[in-house]
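User: I would dearly like some help making sense of a protein record. I have put the entry right below:
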Amino acid sequence: MVQRASDRWISIALSLLLHGALLAALVYGWWMFREQRRAAPTPPIAATVVDARTLKGLEQPAPKPAAAPQPEDMGPPPPTPEERTAREQAEQAQHQAQEQKAAEERAAEEKAAAEKAAEKAAADKAAAEKAAAARAAAEKAAAKAAAERARQEEQDRREREADLQRSLAAEEHADVARNGAALATWQSMIQAKITHAWLRPPTAKAGINCILNVTQVPGGEVTQVSIGACNGDQAVRDSIEAAVYRASPLPPPPDPALFQRSLEITFKPD
């Protein structure tokens, strides 16, 4: 049971009143004792007359009277039951106040520890949420990057397929053109230009028939000439090779798809 502050002050006041009354009683008793000693009559003294000469040499100092006990030498009186009760109540109240103070300090420490733990838990929760958000953002970015890569790969695949289709179509068109009249016309144009540039040597006979291997670059410029099977002598062969270089650049094909770097041309000037 916790004693209220008003009860403690009442106990202290009663204790002070009791001590004051006891002290007043002691002072009053001592004062009355001293007054009675002063007022008491001196008892008659029986004496015998003796000659002073008889007593000469027998004089002795009279003994000093013993000092009467003084009230101060008796020490403090023992406490009364009321005083002991008041003192015990004061000590109990002080002990209860100390226990209450200690309990309040413990409660304050526990409250501070709980608040600190709550703050740490909140900080840990915020850090966990932040880490989870960062992971989610990273996963989202990775998924987006993967989707972008997949889209780019699909686009590249489609472009490659389209390029392949165009290449196949161009090759097919070139094959058709090579096997058609356009190829024959282009070869006739090359043969005519070489024949026009040929300077017939004196040793050339009628019925010249030679196979020419000609290498050209885009634009028709001749880079190399070699003579294959040929029924002419060396002078004829040299003159034909010189004619090919003079005919450079060769006529372009009517269809760019017909262009070939390596040409095999039959040279028949007659």
About this structure: The first helix runs from residue 5 to 39. Helices lie at 5-39, 81-178, 181-197, 234-247. The CA atoms of residues 30 and 72 lie 9 Å apart.
